[in-house]
Sequence to fold (539 residues):
Amino acid sequence: MLGDMMGDSLTITSIMNFAKQVFSSTEIVSVTADNPRHRSTFGEAFERTGQLANALARLGCAEGDRIATLAWNDYRHFELYYAISCSGYVCHTINPRLFPEQIIYIANHAEDQWVFVDPAFVPLLEQAQAQLTSVRGYIVLTDQSNMPETSLANAMCYETFIADEPSQFDWPELDENSASSLCYTSGTTGNPKGVLYSHRSTVLHCMGTNAGDVLGLSSAEVVMPVVPMFHVNAWGTIYGAAASGSKLVFPGPKMGDGETLAALINEEQVSLALGVPTVWLALVNYLEETGTTVKSFKKAVVGGAACPLSLMKAMDKHEVSIHVGWGMTEMSPLGTYNTLLPWMHELPEDEKDKYRLKAGRLIYGVDMRIVDEAGVALPWDGEASGRLQVRGPWVCKAYYKMEASEAHLPDGWFDTGDVATIDPYGYMAITDRTKDVIKSGGEWISSIDVENAAMGHPDIVEAAVIGVPHPKWTERPLLIVVKKPDANPKKEDLLKFLDGKIARWWIPEDCVFVEEIPHTATGKVSKKDLRDQFREYSY
Ligand code: AMP
Fold:
């Protein structure tokens, strides 16, 4: 027997309409290249969203078209998120920190039609545009007075582009399963893979992560996403803040700048902010160097990488409590979130720290399990460690334009490439990775690309790269080399050899020589053994 309830579609448009009605005076404050403090409200932003939707329709955009953004966190990017998705197009957020070949691959694979770009990234696109096969034009995110000279084809200035359009727009009735946004991840080997979110998955993720034991967003919170809007929709906060009426503060290009972050927190009374550990390290360093305090700041959500205990302690001193979250691009992104159970607050400090450092408990809506090599589920005893697998309505079932089999879905579970334990209270802790990548400052480094570049050196027999702990970047690559018997290369020369062959920030800071690199039974380099061997190494 079916229930008798209404079946309204779960769409991002419903979030927009709700925020427009209920929270129109809630503020959005942004740092942009052309304004150190731009102030607006949800009401004003959604008026402009309507103007932008009319302007996009004027361009002749059709349902399902991919429209790209290459932009920092600010109010214009916010408007793009809503105007593109709610018009029935797909908002494709591109990570400008990728190197040009990857950006070209991603934009061509997605068949992006138009690109909205921050002035800072115009030179990047000027170099790439000859190879961008589907792009019809570029809209620069600024006003006419700050519009740069550019060789970009069909370049327009954003403010001029929307200026003459009415704010009234006839938003289409969308199927909740229609695609809303697209984000590529290079967190696995091979070319970056696209994750195509739907309106439904986005709304459910928003509801799941706004829950009290998770982000707990509300109209009393002032939220600052320091996680970029090109990293999985700024972990969902762009929707979550609108659905709960939280004031939004956007740091624009000043993401890693402790001074700007502290100023924004104090001027705007930020209470909750989200970012990778590197960002909070920059803030804490600034606070300690200058004696600045951040009284309104209560919760820092750390995700994308493990959080060092020293950072947690340093933030404790400023009465900011760090909450670890875990997730992936493939999971919209949140899967677990760390809130202590009431009795845990009474534990001795070091016992409590053990729980705080874990990746947290499941969020309602996601299911997870750990399995052994044979795929058999392991107990939640805090000891057994296995491959972490997830499923749920905001977990991807295939990568964009790829066969479902390429998404590693044994029995309908998504294999995360992380290895974890889960304790009897449901707290998951990441212990290792099966995927062969390194995460530095929240961005991926392909160990294989670094190894291949190193192997080009004539004095090397074999090279392997693993991630090792780093105080600032959480993880940095370490090059491990077997040299030819008759050769005696200097480590500085080997590292210099990589210059120009891979992105500069991918180059390891150190190289160590070994007699032999361990291999698995199938002849592959055993990264697990190497990581064990270098467990004590740290930058
Ligand atoms: P991405 O798709 O770029 O968001 O990266 C997702 C991956 O980042 C996960 O599969 C983990 O390997 C890593 N990651 C995310 N959050 C955490 C965390 N709290 N602790 C350790 N690793 C994490």
Summary: The chain has 16 helices and 25 strands. Residues 162 and 226 are 27 Å apart (CA to CA). Residues 185, 187, 232, 303-306, 324, 326, 328-329, 333, 359, 416-418, 430, 433, 439 surround adenosine monophosphate (CB under 6 Å).
